[in-house]
Amino acid sequence: MLEVQSLAKHFGGIRAVDGCSFMVPKGSITALIGPNGAGKTTAFNCISRTTQPTSGQVLLDGKRIDQLRPHKITRMGLSRTFQISRNLADMTVLENVICQARIGGWRDLFKPALGAEEVDKAMEILDFLGITRIAFEDGSNLSYGQKKLMDLAALLMSDPKIILLDEPAGGVNPTLLEEIVGHIRKLNDQGMTVLIVEHNMDLVMRLSHKIVVMAQGRVIADGKPEEIRENPAVLDAYLGGV
Ligand code: ATP
Predict the structure, then answer these.
(1) Which of 94, 107, 67 is nearest to 157 (CA)?
(2) Residues with CB under 6 A from ligand 1
(3) pLDDT, tens digit, for every residue of 139-152?
(4) Which one of 107-116, 179-188, 233-242 scores highest in mean pLDDT?
(5) DSSP code of 157?
(6) Which of 7, 38, 199, 202 is found 20 to 30 A from 167 (Cα to Cα)?
(7) What ipTM score was computed for the predicted complex, to two decimals?
(8) Which of 11, 46, 47, 197 has the most ligand 1 atoms within 8 A of CB, as the residue to mutate?
């Protein structure tokens, strides 16, 4: 479904992503892991085109998306979250979900404040995620985990086929973490393809069908969780990074 081919992103002399190739199979939960500074977020940014890659190709269902603008990629069915919540100031959760989802594309500027259809859809998604109770709370008063759920709700507004989640477990308390894991599984059971960047190895091992390991901008391993767990190059990369 998603194919990353020889992707590179250089910042001056820094090769943040240095010729990465991997695939995210349709219907899978795939994790992109690696020590700090491995290039995972930069790869995510290149795939969602929040950063322009230096070279390489990204294909979604066989079509190149690396030349497209981010909102076009979203319309083609790929949406992402960010490590830090994009909570918009002075907005309720409901408003956030609707307005975050609108960002990108000049046509959005001409939409009414809150359209009835958007509100219905957002409330359905909040219900699906079990967070209707916080729909009218100020987004900035939420816990870290609730913000992650709010961002996930915003992501689902575009009816994506594939979602990219940047550290869905980062800073989240254990109870909410299990909720988030449950939602990711539920979405995947319904056919959603998922790519996650995550440092919580227990979660990665439990959740993923496939793991891609990056170190120093390159893919050093790619396989099933049980293969990755035993892979000496992966153990070396992590121990070397500590
Ligand atoms: P972490 O797990 O800590 O989030 P990561 O694997 O996501 O790390 P990146 O954030 O992609 O790694 O960073 C990869 C490398 O690129 C790092 O050396 C980082 O300092 C560098 N880098 C990332 N963004 C920029 C930038 N805008 N300008 C210069 N260097 C950058």
Answers:
(1) 94
(2) 11, 14, 16, 34, 36-42
(3) 888 888 888 899 99
(4) 179-188
(5) T
(6) 7
(7) 0.96
(8) 11
